[in-house]
Write a structure and sequence with these properties.
Length: 366
């Protein structure tokens, strides 16, 4: 397809959306929601212009030829997800030839990680950050093989972490921090891809225990419980309306805050761990919502409170070190879509995170 024709498709898509906006009509979700992260039917309603589209399209063009799920800092997983999103949007616009180029990038990357198997000496934190995006990308383009299904099963329940001698599943059920949260997101993606509703429901129930209490017995909290609102009842996210020595604990993540330093009411040591933990939880929240198992309202809106505690409360009290930045920004748009908040206003939130991202897919009307 010629460049001119592609430009015509983009302009036509954008003009259609502008016309709807002029009538105060936002694109609506299809009656039946399918897909783990998005679907072609939903993407067909979104514009092929603007900062959200540009972010996902630019990432889709990145090199995806050397995926490494053993490298927790490898962004190939997100680039593959971007390629899947772009492929399906182009197909919806009728640009079959161009779409196929991006689809092939997804397939090649997935087949590469399947051939590689478990990377030698790798850790479950890396698998939690990396693998879920491949499952979501495969689902989006309709890619499914018995080899890939077995790969996902092995990654979830057979591979053993070089550092902790645990499977990804075991890590998800024992680590009340960013390790466990990343595991939660990817385990949700894997079980959604495998259509294992019972396993998804079990994961959801266990996670909810960590914000409503009492936490499932499998969770192992650290020795330093100074950030816990109730050390006798440790949780992943402190309950609403809790405080200590004049500092609000509402929404703070005790296991992540202690990794900066033990509790103190002022001059709090900055740490990036609470932001990373939220990446895994927000990924899981979108997946579970799309499977009819929402968690957004659980724990007195625990996910909203966790974002507010960082982006508003601690940022205003302690400074910009507590404000979302970099590859954490995508979280804010998904939070705003879930709760009607305005955390993302004025920020470039359209890129990827460590495990997922691209709020382009979330622009449909509620």
């Amino acid at each position: 397809m010629t460049t001119l024709r592609r430009m015509i498709l983009v302009i036509a898509s954008s003009v259609s959306l502008l016309y709807l906006c002029a009538l105060h009509i936002l694109p609506e979700k299809p009656e039946q929601v399918t897909g783990i992260w998005s679907s072609r039917a939903e993407l067909a309603l979104l514009p092929m212009s603007g900062p959200a589209w540009e972010a996902v399209y630019n990432d889709a063009q990145q090199d995806t030829s050397h995926p490494d799920v053993g490298n927790q800092n490898d962004n190939t997983n997100c680039f593959v997800l971007a390629a899947a999103i772009v492929s399906e949007r182009l197909l919806a616009a009728g640009d079959v030839e161009h779409a196929q180029e991006f689809r092939q990038k997804v397939i090649c990357a997935i087949e590469t990680i399947v051939r590689t198997g478990q990377p030698a000496g790798s850790r479950s934190l890396a698998w939690g950050r990396e693998i879920g995006a491949y499952a979501m990308a495969a689902d989006l383009i309709g890619y499914r093989t018995s080899e890939f299904e077995q790969y996902l099963k092995n990654a979830a329940d057979n591979w053993k972490c070089s550092a902790r001698n645990q499977t990804l599943h075991e890590m998800t059920l024992t680590r009340p921090n960013n390790w466990g949260s990343m595991g939660f997101g990817t385990m949700c993606a894997i079980y959604a891809y495998l259509d294992d509703t019972a396993a998804l429901a079990s994961l959801r129930k266990t996670w909810i225990s960590t914000i409503n209490g009492p936490s499932a017995e499998s969770f192992k909290y650290g020795d330093d419980l100074s950030w816990q609102a109730d050390p006798q009842k440790p949780m992943n996210i402190n309950p609403a309306r809790t405080a200590k020595d004049g500092l609000s604990l509402d929404g703070l993540q005790p296991e992540e805050m202690r990794r900066g330093a033990s509790f103190k009411a002022s001059d709090i040591t900055p740490t990036g761990y609470p932001f990373e933990a939220l990446q895994g939880w927000i990924m899981a929240a979108r997946i579970l919502e799309r499977r009819g198992m929402p968690i957004w309202q659980e724990g007195d809106k625990a996910l909203y409170r966790a974002v507010y505690a960082l982006e508003k409360y601690l940022t205003e009290k302690e400074g910009e070190a507590w404000s979302f930045s970099g590859d954490d920004l995508w979280i804010l748009e998904f939070i705003d879509r879930a709760y009607g908040s305005t955390f993302a206003k004025g920020k470039d939130v359209w890129g990827h995170g460590k495990n997922a991202g691209y709020p382009y897919v979330a622009q449909l009307a509620d």
